[in-house]
Design brief:
single chain, alpha+beta, Arc Repressor Mutant, subunit A, Alpha-Beta Plaits, 3 domains, seven-stranded mixed sheet, two-stranded antiparallel ribbon, 13 strands, 40% helix
Length: 333
């Protein structure tokens, strides 16, 4: 039965039991394409042999699936190996930036995020030793920069990689719950190569990447990357309304994203209690408290602060700064 094909695809990405994931696969892969995905991994020649088709037919079908975001390529001396997406995150992130994705497909992903994602995310959060992603703080003042590691400094990450591409934010593409900019998800290195080859984003210069970063900070978006010291593939710029991780952090207390190594610190002599920082903080880490003399100042809850630095860049008095509070090995190698 055709339905069995889509259940098998769902099992391949460890989502058995989901009612919606099979429907998503069915919307982007017909029966022949589903069979091809299930025959992977393999070269075009190997897949042609398994399915009794010509190499030309397989190459044409693989190209379609690659552009949809269902197939990934691994170039080896013996030839190009094709494999299907290997996880929910890969399925989500790759197919949602397919330029021809119909609105019905985006809407079905939104239904998944509302109905099934929260319980799945809770399970994942309990299983993983460390979250998949982490916050990167905004640019630090010159006097701090010699204390910052290259892989936790957003400008250093951008300066040392090539190529760079930008895609739409997958979360805001389907959620549409805020007016934050959408074309701001930066892909670097191999992820950028993939984006450019697929046509799911566009190549940009280092200068444009840094401009996007600054604009995102002004718009109140938090920088997030892969939670490891090397080989980051993306820099997301996340909001609290749509982000698949932050929403559950705020509503359910699920830590799906690690903080940076920084903590926001208030200079009580400079702070006037204007509360701009309170409004900027997604995580409820800042509040206004009264001092003994009756004046008001900002206060930071270290348990809630994610070390993003958005509070610091808008403080009119320069009363907020960031200090390193976690050891280097907090970020996995």
């Amino acid at each position: 039965m055709a339905e069995d094909l889509y259940e098998q695809l769902t099992e391949r990405i460890f989502m058995q039991g989901s009612k919606i994931i099979p429907q998503l696969f069915k919307m982007v892969a017909d029966e022949d394409e589903a069979k091809l995905l299930l025959a992977m991994p393999g070269t075009a020649e190997e897949l042609a042999g398994k399915l009794g088709k010509s190499i030309e037919e397989i190459e044409e079908a693989v190209d379609r699936l690659f552009r949809k975001g269902l197939v990934f390529k691994s170039r080896k001396p013996a030839g190009t190996i094709y494999r299907m997406c290997n996880s929910l995150v890969q399925f989500h992130d790759a197919t949602l930036v397919w330029p021809d994705a119909p609105q019905e497909y985006l809407d079905l992903w939104q239904k998944y995020m509302e109905e099934e994602w929260p319980s799945y995310a809770e399970t994942v959060a309990k299983m993983l030793p460390k979250p998949f992603s982490r916050v990167i703080s905004v640019r630090q003042p010159v006097e701090m920069r010699n204390q910052i590691l290259a892989y936790e400094d957003i400008e250093s990450i951008i300066e040392r990689v090539h190529p760079i591409a930008v895609t739409r934010c997958t979360c805001r593409t389907i959620e549409r719950k805020c007016d934050a900019p959408v074309e701001v998800c930066i892909q670097v290195g191999r992820a950028a190569d993939y984006t450019i080859e697929r046509g799911s984003g566009r190549q940009i210069s280092k200068e444009e990447a840094l401009k996007i970063i600054r604009e995102c900070e002004e718009a109140g978006l938090v920088h997030v990357t892969m939670n490891r010291a090397e080989d980051s593939h993306f820099i997301c710029n996340c909001c609290s309304d749509c982000c698949m991780s932050f929403k559950l952090n705020l509503s359910e207390g699920l830590r799906l994203c690690d903080p940076s190594r920084f903590l926001s610190v208030v200079d009580e002599e400079l702070c006037t209690g204007c509360a701009i920082c309170v409004d900027r903080c997604y995580f409820g880490a800042l509040s206004i408290v009264k001092k003994e003399d009756g004046s008001e100042i900002a206060s930071v809850d270290p348990e809630k602060c994610m070390g993003c630095g958005l509070c610091m860049i808008k403080c009119p008095e320069g009363a907020l700064s960031m200090k390193i509070v976690r050891e280097r090995d907090f970020i996995p190698t």
